[in-house]
Amino acid sequence: xxxxISVLGLILAVFVLVRPIPARAAPAPWGxxxxxxxxxxxxxxxxxxxxxxxxxxxxxxxxxxxxxGESIIETPEGSCDFGAGEKSCCEDLGLSxxxxxxxxxxxEVENDETDAKDKVGGMYSPMLVIVTGLxxxxxxxxxxxxxxxxxVKKKK
Length: 156
Description:
Elements: H1 2-18, E1 30-35, E2 40-45, E3 60-62, E4 65-67, E5 70-75, E6 78-81, H2 86-92, E7 96-99, H3 113-120, H4 125-155
Parallel strand pairs: 2-7
Antiparallel strand pairs: 1-2, 1-3, 4-5, 5-6
Helix pairs in contact: 1-4
């Protein structure tokens, strides 16, 4: 009986130690991006747990602070109300509005291998979670079979 309790305790300990841990990921907030050299401005979204959109060289991202129900973005060019939209915000800053999301360029050809990896981001994450989950299930199944083997052997 002690062996059975010991094996069940071992199974529980292994299951607790190797269980899949859920990823805590959330989409990045929307904001604006500014290129101070060209005095251009546009909307910007960095992505989520599956995709990462890097800003082009020379661009800097700014995100709203939510104060008293208003979303205000502070930049070196001044501040604006992001609640009115990125185009309005860019115009309030005296910058020319260029795009809804400056990180996504229409018709862009991905020649650079590094750039392609940035755009893929965490696309392999779902596969990793599936493989890890299956491995954990396999370990638990093996431990259950070993426990059943010891129980049957004890009864003989």
